[in-house]
Design a protein that fits this description.
- This protein starts with a strand and ends in a 7-residue tail after the last helix.
- It has 297 residues and is of the alpha/beta class.
- It has one domain: TIM Barrel (Alpha-Beta Barrel).
- The strands form three sheets. An eight-stranded parallel sheet has the order 3-4-5-8-9-10-11-12, covered by helices on one side.
């Protein structure tokens, strides 16, 4: 594994992290504590130390599975979670952004994670009006003073939202999370250069383009009815993306190289990117993701 400094936080994070949206049940599968524990054991053995989760991956469900899995070696992990949504049911959330409610969300997240602090607490992909909520960042600064938050971050919803990126240092946010992958390069125009200029750490989410860049799927692929990709993507969109993936695999991926590993390393070769946070369905896929760090040599 390789490690990079996460912007101005001083945190040394593995270049491959573990994304955990799948634990919330919106990707066509449910996870037990045993399933999650095996994933984090594989991650730890592979040198991964970064976990990304959120309050609304289930109703703190993902956080609960993480907490049960890493409580005995909490100090070995850098845990990033988020605030701003309340889970109602799969694919349905309410926005929760007033300072009092966000502080309650923090307490609920700490309880679920079985910890007394989070390493990175991130604004969760809301609009500019929510970002400017009166008293929000001041309330979070107070929680940081108490030691319940080590660092603040901004997960931007639109991967071209340069406003929130530029405003982040002013509110004490040191890290930007953004969708970035070989199929979606929009952050390269302004977001990523601004992050470099401001010394903001960058977590690249969806680095495998919702699994399309794994190379496993061909045009015409279908997903289970309870998989979020059915809610997001029409058949035409899916097939168009998968035809583009076939072209990339044919023209850009070296022969004999696993496409998913190549796609993760592709993101990391951008000097602005600190770490990628792919999801993983099981321990084997976790180890396979971790091996992508070898392609950086």
């Amino acid at each position: 594994m390789k490690y990079r400094t996460l912007g101005s936080t001083g945190l040394e994070v593995s270049v491959i992290g573990v994304g955990t949206w799948q634990f919330g049940g919106e990707w066509g599968r449910t996870y037990s504590e045993s399933d999650a524990s095996k994933i984090f054991a594989a991650a730890r053995d592979s040198g991964i130390n970064l976990i990304d989760t959120a309050e609304c991956y289930g109703d703190h469900l993902s956080e609960s599975l993480i907490g049960a899995s890493v409580a005995e070696n909490r100090e070995d992990w850098i845990i990033a979670t988020k605030f701003g949504h309340h889970f109602k049911k799969n694919f349905d959330r309410n926005q929760v952004i007033d300072p009092e409610s966000v502080v309650k969300q923090l307490e609920d997240s700490l309880r679920a994670l079985r910890t007394d602090y989070v390493d990175l607490y991130q604004f969760h992909s809301l609009d500019d009006q929510a970002f400017a909520t009166e008293g929000l960042w001041e309330a979070l600064a107070k929680e940081k003073e108490k030691g319940k938050i080590r660092h603040l971050g901004t997960s931007i919803g639109s991967n071209t939202n340069s406003h929130q990126v530029k405003a982040s240092p002013d509110v004490g946010s040191e890290v930007i999370q953004v969708v970035y992958n070989r199929l979606d390069r929009a952050p390269e125009s302004e977001v990523l250069p601004t992050c470099q200029e401001e010394n903001l750490g960058v977590l690249a989410r969806v680095p495998l383009a919702s699994g399309y860049l794994s190379g496993k799927y061909k045009p015409g692929a279908q997903f289970p009815s309870n998989d979020v990709r059915n809610a997001w993507h029409t058949d035409n969109f899916r097939d168009s993306r998968l035809r583009e993936v076939e072209k990339i695999q044919r023209e850009e991926v070296p022969e004999g190289t696993d496409m998913a590993q190549w796609a993760l390393a592709w993101c990391l070769k951008n000097p602005a990117v600190t770490s990628v946070i792919p999801g993983c369905k099981d321990a084997d896929q976790t180890r396979k993701n971790a091996a992508a760090a070898d392609l950086l040599e």
